[in-house]
Structure formats: C-alpha cells, structure tokens
D-ribitol-5-phosphate cytidylyltransferase
Amino acid sequence: MESGPRGGSRPAEPGPCLSSQCGADQAASASVLSAAGAEPGSRTLAVAAVLPAGGCGERMGVPTPKQFCPVLERPLISYTLQALERACWIKDVVVVVTEENMQAMENIIQKYKHKSISLVEAGVTRHRSIFNGLRALADNRLNSKLSKPEVVIIHDAVRPFFDEDILLKVVTAAKEHGCSDYDLEFGTECLQLALKYCHIKAKLVEGSPDLWKVTYKRDLYAAESIIKERISQEICIVMDPKENEEHIGHLLEEILKTELNHVQVTSQALYNAGSDIQQINLEQCYNFVCVNVKTPDFRETQKLLSMLEESNFSLLYPIVVVSAHFLDFKLVSPSQKMESLMWIREFAKEMRKKNILLYGLLINHSQDEQKLQENLRQGAIIITALIKERNSALIGQLLVA
Amino acid sequence: MESGPRGGSRPAEPGPCLSSQCGADQAASASVLSAAGAEPGSRTLAVAAVLPAGGCGERMGVPTPKQFCPVLERPLISYTLQALERACWIKDVVVVVTEENMQAMENIIQKYKHKSISLVEAGVTRHRSIFNGLRALADNRLNSKLSKPEVVIIHDAVRPFFDEDILLKVVTAAKEHGCSDYDLEFGTECLQLALKYCHIKAKLVEGSPDLWKVTYKRDLYAAESIIKERISQEICIVMDPKENEEHIGHLLEEILKTELNHVQVTSQALYNAGSDIQQINLEQCYNFVCVNVKTPDFRETQKLLSMLEESNFSLLYPIVVVSAHFLDFKLVSPSQKMESLMWIREFAKEMRKKNILLYGLLINHSQDEQKLQENLRQGAIIITALIKERNSALIGQLLVA
C-alpha cells in the first residue's frame, strides 16, 4: 500500500505530517525521516528516535499528562522507552518534554535506568517539538554525545505496544521510499511545510492492532491489563529436591499447567542460599511459587527472595512470590500454623519496597488423594488470581486452600 | 455540525450508511430513521431500537463473537440492553442475531430478565440484518406484540456505554432533520441505496468518548475496568446500633471516606433479621461492609446476606460483602479467632452461586488509639482492593489488618 503526501484518509488529529495513517487503530506508529544521502544497503544504518512527549493529555480526564500516568506504578513513557531499548540498533533516543516536566523525566530515566536518552525542551506545538528533537540530533554542538543519524523514527510516547519487526519495516520503508529531497540540516523548519513543498514520498506501513495510542482513561485500563497479561505468561515453582518436596511441588505444577493452559509453568531447585542466581531463568519470569513442605517455614522463600533482591529484576515490573505451605489440617489446626506464619505480613512490607509482592498460601495436605487434588486445584486458582491481579493491598495475607 | 450523506470522513468500517461519523472515538453510536409522516411535536414519539448483533468479532482474537464475550461474567450485549432499558421511552428493542446464536441470545434475555426484546434472524451482511430488524418493526404480521414505531434507533450491540441524553439528542435530530423521503414500509431495501438515491439529510450528533465500540480484546479489558469502577462508587457500612458497634463502625466509615475520596460511603443499621429491605438503599449499592463487634460472629453479615439473596439485586452485577470482625490481638490470638471464622469459606461458596462475593476481614482492635487508626486504615485499603477487583478466586478468605 502506497500513498502520496495527500493520499489516504485525513489524520484524525494533529500529528507529524509524514506519518502514514491507515485507520484509527492500525495506524503505523512511527513516521520516519531519512537524511539526504542515506542509501539503502547492507551496512548498518545509524538510526535514532524522537519521542514528542510534551502533550498535556487533556482528553484523558486526569491532571497528569498521559505519558506520565502510572501503569503498574511505572509511568507509561517508561514502557515506550523500554520497548525502544529492545531494538538495539536504535543508537539514540531524544525525548522532547516541556520545561516543567524536565526534572520528572530525568527522574524516570534514572529510576528505571534507561540508556542513551537525551532530553530536549518542547516547542509550542507538536511540530515544533519534533523539530527541536530533530535539531538536537542534527546539531552536534548542542549535545556532543549524540551522533548524527541517517534515519530518524518519530514515535508517540504514548504508544508503548509495538514490536521490533514493525520498527524495522518502518526503517526499511524510509530507506527505500524516503525523503530524498529532505535534509536534516536545513529542511526541518516545519514538517508540514516539508510535506507541502518538498513532495516527500510517503510509504504506508501496515501496523498491528497493538500499535494503538493511549488517549483516554480507558486506554490506561487496557494498557495495564495487557501488561499484566504479558508478565503473567510464566510461573516458576521453586522447591528443594533434597527435602522430598518434589512430589507435592510437581503435583502443584501439573495442576497449574491444567488451570493455565496458556501459561508456561517450570520448576526449579534452589540448592544453597547464595547460590548462583543463573540457576533460575529469572529474566523471563515475574511469578514464583515457593514450596515449603518439610523444610523450616519460609526457608525456600527466603532463599528466593534474597536472590530476587540481589538481581534487581523487579525494577521494571512487580514480581509476585507466593510462599506455599503444606499442612494436614486433620493433624494440625490451620490456625496454629497460621500463628507461626503471621510474620509474613511484616516481611511482605519490606519486600514491597523492592517491588516484590509476597503472599502466603496454606494448602491442606490431605491424605485423601482426591481431596488433595481438589485443594491443590483451589491453591492453583488462588495463585492464578494473585499473579493476574498483582494487588499490592493484599501482600502479606495468608490465604487458605 | 451538519454533514450531507457523503460529507465528513469515510466510515472506517462497514456500518449503516445513515450513521454519522465524527472521528474514531467520538462517533455517534446510533443512527436513526424516522418514518414518513413522523412530525416533531410535544406528543411522545413511538421509538424502537434495532441492535444488529450478527457479527463474528474476528478482530477480537477470541472465538466468541464480541457481543457475547463475558464482562464480569455477563455477556457484553446484556450491558447494552440494560442501558437501552434505562431509556423507558424506547418501546421495543429488536436484536438481530445469526441462527446459531438465537438460543444463546434467548437464554441471555431470560437469565438477565431483559424486557421488550424481540429476536430476528440476521442477514448475510450487516445492512441486510438491519433491514430484517426494521422489517420486523414495520410488519405487524410477523410479530404482533411489536408496534410500528415513528423513530428507529440503530445501535451497535457492542457499544454498552452511552447515556440517555445522547439517545434523546439522536432521536430529536431524527425528528428535526430526518428522512422525510424515507418510508419504513417500502424504502428499506438497503440503507446504502436509500442513502444514495433518496438524498436523505443526515445530522451529525456530537457523541461522548464513552460511546466507543468494543472491537479489540483490549476494549474488553477496558469495558471490565469501567464497569468495575462504576459499581464501586458507593459503599454501605452495615452495623447494629444497639450493640455499641456504632463507634468502631463510624471510625471505619471515616477512614474509608478519606481513603476513597471519590466514593460515597454511607452507614445503615439492620434492626431485625427479615426486616424491611427498603431500610437499605440497595439498588444503588453493590458493596457492603458488615461490622461484627459485640454481636455473635456473622450475625450482622447473615442478616444482610439474607436480604441480598431475597432482593435479587446481584442479578446484573456481582455484589461484594466484607464481613469485618474486630478483636484485640493482645488479648486473644488472631489464630483462635480465625478458627471460629473458618466456616466463612463454605458459606462463601454458597453465596458465590448467587453472584455475591463474600470475604472475611479480621481487624486488630488495639486499645492504642493510634495503632487502631493504622489498623483501620489497613482494613480500608483491603476493603477497597476487594471491591475494586471483585476477584471471585479469593472469596471466603479471611484477611487480616
């Protein structure tokens, strides 16, 4: 699908004139500019991105500009930056923000350890802001650490959901179709003027429904649900094989696999406290169930928590840890066991500060095989709910299955 | 804003040609047809609605057609029907469904007690389906209980969020601008043809962002969040004033008011089991906290639950009931209290069948005023989370604050 500068449907709202629109929800998220002289070829192109983030989000109905609205307690723009970082061929990212949000943006970059980001002050309009971002890339004097790119991706700060393939398509399109009359040094007075007078060829790049833009409050709800779903795709069951925990652990694993047929459930053993963290494939996993059967209460859980604390993997997403305890309610009253587990509440408060959500789960380890299966299934339902909701108000609670 | 039949932007997708579009998210949700001879005036117009619901929802990425997708366990189309029912001046609603979904639709109408609904079989295209719906209204022989309307609202089954004011505007616009060359009896061969050949005047009615259409899976997430938010706007605290529960009940009320500054918190007394249900303004409220202090455990909660069961108010939305129990943890071990409260789990399973979500909450009734305040605040946070999430996996759990 190709369209000339004026082809296709009219943009529904002010935006970069070089962006290609293909319907409200399938719009290509990024417009691209390639500098004069950038030739398509096998060598690696120097690619940069400009994120206009100077908007005030008046349609959102909340006082915070939408790019700074928290999603799972992290500002939306941080998710967009994280997605751009995954495309390691993007050398620099320029975020354009208003003066009043400059410090807040610096704090976000520092807190979430975003790399290769430069901040530039927004202009009066969105086009002026993009211009400021482009000038920062073109003008080496302004910021010596930025290198002049051959292709610039202009991406909405409030479109956190896209994948690298789409970006690559956009960059490829820029190389093949892009902007031969366009010069980063001199041509960026206004993108609208460039479009009007330079007859820049625009290429429509097919997007995916995920590219949608967070505009209304309901979009924040949807974004939060999508992110929760994405980080709930893998559960790791941690147990100590030396202590005969394997049997019950694997039973729980099987039931979780049945309950959550789209979720990958793996099990891991922690051999020693302080052992090599690489034993667990933590990087892909934000959900852990720690099986404590014969070992003293919380020993396995504490080992895991120490590892998680050291790793800092909870920086970007809250990690759920369910400390599962097994007890035959016929032999010992669950309330007695509860007494000994009550300190999980204080412990959970400490973990909360590190973005780790700790919950307790007491499962009736019935000698009746059928009852045990039912209790494990109930436990799996509770674990699933805790992982899906990631509700920080319920940390430290001791749930019963 | 007025536009002729071909004015404005092109519809993004197939739809009734008479619908007026004003952008992806602010599109007027309903198109209207007024029959020849319908005069604007002070007398009440006979208004009916046609809901084309024959789509298969291929963009949703789930096998169920989107209008039947569950939101808080109730099919989306039931919310749309409920919203139409609130406009009592709409006499008849015709839902157009495919043959294979006819029985499912009948079950929905019966289960959720929707009134004045007729079912008509869908055509091959959306336009044909609308035609079938209109013909059912025009042709008294087909269904004798339907009266011939003067204005027909055509409304997407997957737009559950609109208010009566918007509908009234649409109907008013139909009266003033509408369709004078148009005749329900003879003119509805195809709406597209009617538009093309009859030069029907179309009137653009300004919509609200709430009118958006559930199209993608993320829209279902958003719909669920919006509905959860709407039914969490009021909390009723129930207590027995004769048993000196008022003090602690009002303390909790004050803290809930502080924690939830947008939520209306009221308190009510239940005098006798089986007393007049009208004592509590149940109809607006889907959230209850039952304070049990000096009374035997669960007495207040049981009274309330009996009333709720009788009322059937949980038909449309799940009702949250938090049974709050106070105990000085220094005097009595919380685990002992837990023992006596454990049967809440079985009780909650029974209530679940009636769409009532019952949770237990044990609050440390410390003699230290400051500690009590902190515990109540913690209790309020837990109550808020339970109400907001409405998580059926956690029913019957006994949480501790």
Summary: The first helix of chain B runs from residue 76 to 86. Residues 280 and 301 of chain B are 14 Å apart (CA to CA).
